[in-house]
DNA sequence: AGGCCTTTGAAGTCT
DNA sequence: AGACTTCAAAGGCCT
């Protein structure tokens, strides 16, 4: 699948993005969070297309950009960073951070800041007293090493930095000049002290951060698992343009991250989290088998009701506010993804929907979803309501559970939306084991 | 207290 | 090359 290049006026690239004006803030992305839930990206990043240069579209949206290289940390081309990331020493203090990861959200910064020595490279993000104290209580100055020759030596505190969980000690031995001979124990200690540089957020994560508060506000649901399911559907319901904004933000985030931590690798964080139980990491073959089994024996089962987090008839469960672009764009990601015949599936996002989650429980749930979907489809098609796969199921449905016809016939968005709205049964009803009610 | 759940995407490892 | 795994955020739930 190829998403077209964003149709953005070329003049947009030269707009001054350093001082977000109210005009900038009036964009198509529904930023309706209450002030205290202001997304860290929101204040500084405007989602107007004006800010997305046609020269730097999201990797998967641009056939001109090699998706393989797009995610690889590399020295960003000046034209890619500017004016967002003028990280040269002289200019770094001029530009507000476009991603706004220093802006507090819900009382806390999206990422953490080191104490002292912070030079406020982005004036708009200069820490206030409360932030500063919060930050200084969490970090020690040695945490952030200068990562890039083009960066301030004081170390730009990328939000991704997380303090290592280490007991407080008077003076870090690693800072001692006399530390020439390091014992293995010391080395180990130092490793433990190394700051945990988190992965940059991907597009969906950025979207989640922004929209979570809104969804939570609309729903009585509080569990993130449920919210995330809703957000996942909303994500698929976004127009390509709206998704493109987040892909672009994510791309910039990765660029900045790679500049700040050129030696960082995602591998560095492997093992930082507790490994999940091995038995949950089944092969896809196994998962497909499970799905099929679950499909075949819908009646029996599932450790967990698949709709536990998705109560039907929830207002927040509805697709994101209908956008004209959605209705005008039949070839949405979801729709296109549903078609294996879609050309040029070069992006992971394009292939993923055809892969299964690795979680057995999830697969069981998906199987139930699938069975429910198939059941609903039989009903809907007989009534002529549904000729296509609703977007809400474009991802949750395991490939193996879908009839070939569905996979080869991407739905138009209007049809999908109608199906979605007309078939709440797809969400949960056949398995209405809702544990929470919205109201 | 800490892992699980749940989502998508990026990037790593493995086969 | 493709499949698989891990982590990123979030907060209630569960052990």
From TrEMBL:
InterPro entries reported in the protein's UniProt record: CTNNB1-bd_N, HMG_box_dom, HMG_box_dom_sf, TCF/LEF
Keyword Magnesium: no
Protein location: Nucleus
Any single GO CC term annotated in Swiss-Prot or TrEMBL for this entry: chromatin
GO biological process: canonical Wnt signaling pathway
Residues annotated as domain HMG box: 197-265
Family: Belongs to the TCF/LEF family.
Bias (Low complexity) ranges: 176-186, 282-292, 329-348
Compositional bias (Polar residues): 349-359
Protein known as: Transcription factor 7-like 1 isoform X1
PROSITE patterns the UniProt entry points to: HMG_BOX_2
Pfam families, A to Z: CTNNB1_binding (PF08347), HMG_box (PF00505)
GO molecular function term, any single one: RNA polymerase II cis-regulatory region sequence-specific DNA binding
UniProt keyword DNA-binding present: yes
DNA-binding region residue numbers: 197-265
Source organism of this protein record: Leptonychotes weddellii
